[in-house]
Amino acid sequence: MLKLRLYLTVLIMIVAVSCGSDLSDKGDQLYKQGKYEEAIEAYSEYLETYPNNEIVIYNRGRSYEELGQFDEAIADYEKVLKIDDRHMNSRLGLASLFYKNEDYPSAEIILTESMKISPENPNVYALRGKVNFQMSEFKQSITDLSNAIKIKPDMAEAYYYRGLAYIGTNKKSTGCADLQKALSMGIDVAQNSINKYCK
């Protein structure tokens, strides 16, 4: 009888985990298909059973972000960071949303903390470079973007913003060279800046 109970308990746990996994997988598939509202429903249903699954919370946050529901996305990214404060994708997601909402000081704080956790992550440097550019901290922007490029030389957007930052420090020829590089790497908007600053 004890063996039967143990067997049934294990079987129930396997079925529960399997159902939860199915919901998580369903959410992932819906996200890939661009069905973000349905993905949120699947992730939320999964989280009713497994409320601290940081991957699913993060994925739901991404879905909210895709729908422009930034407050909900921020809440999910912050929840992930309460579970694991080193979760770099949530840190970048949160900083990116602060950037989009023009809350540059908050983005800068998160990114500076993130550099201590992941000092070789080019995305952290690139985003902080953009943040510093928006705050007219051109020298710091150049330093951050140069670090991003050093780690990942094919980071076209970093060349674009570094070019603008150089122009902001009156280093026109260096800035224009970066803008040309960004244009050659597929950043089409660089042409507008070249026309404006480099003619």
From TrEMBL:
Gene3D superfamilies: Tetratricopeptide repeat domain (1.25.40.10). Keywords: Repeat, TPR repeat. SMART domains: TPR. The keyword NAD does not apply. TPR repeats lie at residues 20-53, 54-87, 122-155. PANTHER family: TETRATRICOPEPTIDE REPEAT PROTEIN 6, UDP-N-ACETYLGLUCOSAMINE--PEPTIDE N-ACETYLGLUCOSAMINYLTRANSFERASE SPINDLY-RELATED. This is Uncharacterized protein.
